[in-house]
């Protein structure tokens, strides 16, 4: 039984999916105007581990991570670099995928771009306007927080106690200082879309509401993100989605703690701002993943050179044991000693840790203990081939399969050039279907089938599986 600490209820709860064995999970992704930093990497890696463990337990996980490709920061960067917003976004989306692949983060089921769901955002805003919850002021549309009775239920904040200007920008157009933008009137030189309120673009909060509801349904299981997103972003997502759809939005909210650098908050002004790419130049992805896994996801983490070096050494210890097992398996003259080794006990210890709100620190400790025991048995010669195979399987399923801590056979399951090309063909096929070019869409499906790639269409999109030809 998995227990999750739910930010919404402020307590641990048993994970009971809305539609077992399926779990629908949404993770707030990057705003693509720069390389993502090491704090973002923590959230991305820990959500990856949560997703991997749910799959390890037998759940079918539909995992969605959005890409915010229209935003003030992107517009600012486009002006600085004399490029279009689209050019800036596309460049950093490509770089994002390179970095998450290096960090061994599994590809999401869907990576919706905000610009591809503008119509869905407009539809949701129209719903809110019709219900009297959104109001238009000269092309700027705002959400009236006083009309949503449960506003503040995620963050625990009381709107009456929040003073104007203390946490939100004062805007004379708003009825209430906490009201937030659903649609922003276009400024000169900015990208825009046509809407019932004139030319403009969506607010940040409505993007996640529209995309998650479109791809996962109006109610889904898990929403994850950094602790800094609880208020106002996730609070506003709840207000928008529940007011528009008149049903609970998300059952379980998971939030990842802050990351400090040498006990200080990371910031460019302090000169301690590091991108994930910069850290990967000096340390392995496995060491970075181990470093984050050694702390509980909800708590703060202090990042320092000393601590990451210690994680690198820890990774090497586990890797050495794993490599030793593989080397022994190549030996034709293995010992034939029967071992009374309880592998089930080790699986139970690992699962007990992970079942308790994804306690990766305890799970990692179990991996280290298991590694020491295996090394001891091999050194004493009290083993046989079956022991080695089961030890390798344990590492494959837990240390690598869930935590991503080893350079192993399973690592080859990370997205390859082949996978990326298949995704490109699926995108072209979807565009062909939208344009009613069914001849092309069917041809792509049939040609992929010939080489063992089976496309599977559903209401939430297209997935694929590989079969033997």
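^ Assign residues to that structure.
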């Amino acid at each position: 039984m998995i227990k999750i600490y739910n930010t919404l209820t402020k307590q641990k709860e048993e994970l009971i999916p809305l539609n077992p064995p399926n779990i629908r999970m949404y993770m707030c992704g990057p705003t693509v105007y720069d390389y993502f930093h090491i704090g973002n990497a923590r959230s991305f890696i820990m959500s990856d581990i949560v997703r991997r463990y749910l799959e390890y337990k037998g759940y079918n996980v539909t995992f969605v991570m959005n890409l915010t490709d229209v935003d003030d920061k992107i517009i600012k960067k486009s002006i600085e670099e004399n490029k279009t917003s689209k050019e800036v976004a596309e460049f950093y989306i490509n770089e994002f995928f390179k970095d998450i692949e290096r960090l061994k983060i599994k590809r999401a089921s869907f990576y919706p771009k905000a610009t591809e769901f503008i119509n869905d955002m407009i539809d949701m805003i129209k719903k809110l306007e019709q219900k009297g919850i959104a109001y238009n002021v000269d092309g700027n549309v705002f959400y009236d927080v006083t009309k949503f009775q449960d506003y503040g239920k995620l963050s625990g904040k009381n709107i009456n106690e929040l003073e104007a200007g203390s946490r939100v920008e004062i805007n004379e157009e708003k009825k209430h200082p906490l009201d937030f933008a659903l649609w922003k009137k276009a400024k000169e030189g900015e990208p825009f879309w046509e809407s019932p309120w004139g030319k403009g673009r969506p607010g940040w909060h409505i993007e996640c509401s529209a995309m998650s509801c479109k791809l996962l349904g109006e109610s889904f299981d898990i929403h994850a993100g950094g602790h800094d997103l609880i208020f106002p972003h996730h609070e506003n997502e709840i207000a928008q989605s529940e007011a528009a759809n008149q049903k609970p939005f998300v059952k379980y909210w998971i939030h990842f703690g802050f990351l400090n650098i040498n006990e200080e908050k990371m910031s460019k002004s302090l000169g301690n701002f590091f991108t994930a790419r910069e850290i990967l130049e000096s340390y392995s992805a496995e060491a970075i993943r181990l470093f984050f896994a050694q702390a509980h996801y909800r708590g703060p983490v202090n990042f320092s050179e000393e601590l990451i070096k210690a994680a690198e050494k820890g990774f090497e210890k586990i890797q050495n044991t794993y490599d030793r097992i593989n080397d022994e398996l190549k030996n034709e003259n293995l010992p034939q000693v029967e071992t009374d080794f309880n592998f089930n006990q080790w699986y139970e210890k690992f699962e007990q840790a992970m079942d308790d709100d994804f306690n990766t620190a305890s799970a990692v400790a179990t991996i280290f203990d298991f590694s020491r025991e295996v090394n001891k048995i091999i050194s004493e010669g009290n083993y046989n081939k079956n022991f080695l195979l089961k030890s390798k399987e344990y590492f494959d399923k837990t240390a690598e399969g869930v935590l991503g801590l080893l350079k192993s056979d399973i690592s080859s399951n990370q997205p390859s050039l082949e996978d990326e090309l298949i995704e490109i063909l699926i995108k072209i096929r979807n565009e062909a279907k939208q344009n009613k070019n069914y001849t092309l869409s069917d041809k792509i499906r049939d040609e992929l089938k010939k080489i063992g790639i089976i496309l599977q269409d559903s209401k939430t999109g297209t997935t694929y599986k590989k079969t033997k030809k």
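The CA atoms of residues 139 and 197 lie 5 Å apart.
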